[in-house]
Design brief:
By secondary structure, the protein is of the alpha/beta class. It is built from 14 helices and 17 strands. The chain has two domains: 150 residues, Aspartate Aminotransferase, domain 1; 225 residues, Type I PLP-dependent aspartate aminotransferase-like (Major domain) (Aspartate Aminotransferase, domain 2, 3-Layer(aba) Sandwich), CATH 3.40.640. It is 39% helix and 18% strand. The protein has a seven-stranded mixed β-sheet with strand order 4-10-9-8-7-5-6, with helices on both faces. It has a four-stranded antiparallel β-sheet with strand order 13-14-17-16, covered by helices on one side. It has a two-stranded antiparallel ribbon with strand order 1-2. Helix 11 runs parallel beside helix 14 and helix 12 crosses helix 14. The longest helix is centred in the first third of the chain and has 21 residues. The protein is globular.
C-alpha cells in the first residue's frame, strides 16, 4: 500500500509529483508552482519515454513501409489509438480520429457534418472561441440559423433553457462540458437526451473535462467529443476527435491526399479516387507518430492513477482555494463555488490591481507562481459579465501534480499582492 504525505485514498501524490521533471527546477532559488494546467499540462517521464522510444528505436513511417522499423511504428501507432479509445470507452478504435488539437476537432465537425438546409445550430456564451466560432461561420456560410444560449452568471445552465432552445428545427448543438473560465460542468447527459429527443446532434468540447474527470462517451451518448491531448499530460500538437462511427462515415471529407485512399485510378483522362472509411478518412498525410504514441501513453498514465482519484485530489485543493480567496477583500471570483460541479480551477479579478496581467506578473516574479491571465479565449462571457477583456481575469488551475504547498504559496502571494495594492 502506498504511503506518504498528501495521500488521498490509495494514491501517493508525492510519488506522482516526482514523475514530472519540470517540477524539479528551481528559479532564483525557489521551487516552481505551476498553476496553468488548464492551458498546458506538464508531461510525466512515462510520456516522454514513450515518445523518445519511437524517435530512438523505430523512427519510421507507420503503415507505409514493410521493413522492421515501419512495422514497429505501425504497431505502436495502432496501439495508441486503442489506448485512447479505452480511455473514452469508445465503442471501437475507428471512432477516435487523431487531430492537432481540440480546435481542429471542432472545426472538422463544424465544416464537415451534414446539416439540413435552414436548420438551427445552438451554442453558448460560455464557449471557448474554438467551440463557437467554427459553428458561427458554418451558419454564416450555409445560411443556417445560429442561436446562443446565455450562461447564468455563475457559469451554470438551467435545463429549462435547453428545453426551450432545442426544437425540432435544431440540427446541431455545440457545448463546452467544463468551462475553461468558470470551471463549471454542464449537465451533459441531460442536454444530450433533450437534443436527441428533438433529432439534434451534440458536439461536446471536452478539452477541459477529459483531463480531470472520468469521461464515458457511450454512457453520455454524445455524438462528437473534442479533446486536446496537451491538457492531459500528453504532447503538444495532438488532439482527438471522437465521433460515433455512423456520423463519421456520413460526414464530408475535409482533407485529401496520401493515406486517405484505397485506390486512385486513371481512366479516360480522369483521376478516380476511392476513399477509405474512418479513421483514415480524416487523417491525410504523414502522421505525428510520436505524438500519437505519447497521447496513448498519457491516456494509459491517467487511467493507471484513476480519473476518480484525480478528480477528488483536485477538488480537495480547490475547496481550500475557493474558501480562502472568497474571504479576501477586493477579489471577485467567477463561477459557482460548488466544487461538485466544478473542475479544479478558479478565475477571478482583483479590484485594486489595474489588470489581470499585473496579478500574474507579481505572482511569477515574487514566488514563481505561474497562473494564466487574459480573457482565456472566452470573450463573450467576459462581456456578458461586464469585465473589460483588456483588463481580463486571472486563472489558477490545479492538476494531479499540485499539492497543498502549491496552494499555500499561491494564497500567500495573493495576500501579499492585495496588501501591496491598497
Amino acid at each position: 500500500m502506498a504511503t506518504g504525505k498528501g495521500l488521498i485514498g490509495m494514491v501517493d501524490w508525492t510519488k506522482i509529483r516526482n514523475d514530472f521533471p519540470a517540477l524539479e527546477r528551481t528559479i532564483n532559488g525557489r521551487p516552481v508552482v505551476y498553476l496553468d494546467s488548464a492551458c498546458m499540462a506538464l508531461k510525466p517521464r512515462q510520456v516522454l519515454n514513450a515518445m523518445n522510444e519511437y524517435y530512438e528505436q523505430y523512427p519510421a513511417c507507420g503503415g507505409r513501409s514493410i521493413h522492421r522499423f515501419g512495422e514497429e511504428a505501425s504497431n505502436a501507432y495502432t496501439a495508441a489509438r486503442g489506448k485512447f479509445a479505452k480511455f473514452l470507452n469508445a465503442a471501437n478504435e475507428e471512432e477516435c480520429i487523431w487531430t492537432r488539437n481540440a480546435t481542429e476537432s471542432l472545426n472538422i465537425v463544424a465544416s464537415s457534418v451534414k446539416l439540413q438546409e435552414g436548420s438551427k445550430i445552438i451554442t453558448t456564451s460560455l464557449e471557448h472561441h474554438s467551440g463557437s466560432l467554427p459553428f458561427v461561420e458554418r451558419a454564416r456560410r450555409d445560411n443556417l440559423v445560429i442561436e446562443i444560449v446565455k450562461a447564468q452568471s455563475d457559469g451554470t445552465f438551467d435545463l429549462e433553457q435547453w428545453k426551450e432552445a432545442i426544437d425540432g428545427n435544431t440540427s446541431l448543438v455545440s457545448i463546452v462540458h467544463s468551462s475553461n473560465v468558470t470551471g463549471t460542468i454542464a449537465p451533459m447527459k441531460e442536454i444530450v437526451e433533450i437534443a436527441h429527443d428533438r433529432g439534434a446532434l451534440v458536439m461536446c468540447d471536452d478539452a477541459q473535462y477529459a483531463p480531470h474527470h472520468p469521461l464515458d462517451v457511450q454512457e453520455i451518448d454524445v455524438d462528437f467529443s473534442a479533446i486536446s491531448v496537451h491538457k492531459m499530460c500528453g504532447p503538444t500538437g495532438m488532439g482527438v476527435l471522437y465521433g460515433k462511427l455512423e456520423h463519421l462515415e456520413s460526414m464530408n471529407m475535409c482533407f485529401y491526399g496520401g493515406d486517405t485512399v484505397s485506390d486512385v485510378r486513371y481512366e479516360n483522362g480522369k483521376i478516380l479516387p476511392e476513399y477509405l472509411p474512418p479513421p483514415e478518412k480524416f487523417e491525410a498525410g504523414l502522421q505525428n507518430y510520436a505524438g500519437a504514441i505519447g497521447a496513448g501513453a498519457a491516456a494509459e498514465y491517467l487511467q493507471a492513477i484513476g480519473m476518480h482519484e484525480i478528480e477528488k485530489h483536485e477538488r480537495s485543493l480547490l475547496e481550500v482555494v475557493l474558501k480562502r480567496l472568497s474571504d479576501m477583500e477586493h477579489v471577485n471570483i467567477l463561477g459557482t463555488d460548488d466544487i461538485n460541479i466544478k473542475t479544479g480551477l478558479v478565475t477571478f479579478h482583483v479590484d485594486t490591481v489595474p489588470s489581470a496581467h499585473d496579478v500574474a506578473t507579481f505572482l511569477n516574479k515574487e514566488l514563481n507562481v505561474m497562473v494564466r491571465s487574459g480573457w482565456h479565449c472566452v470573450g463573450p462571457f467576459h462581456y456578458q459579465m461586464g469585465i473589460d477583456p483588456k483588463k481580463g481575469t486571472v486563472r489558477a488551475s490545479f492538476y494531479l501534480y499540485n499539492n497543498r504547498a502549491d496552494v499555500d504559496t499561491f494564497l500567500s502571494g495573493m495576500e501579499a499582492l492585495i496588501e501591496a495594492s491598497k
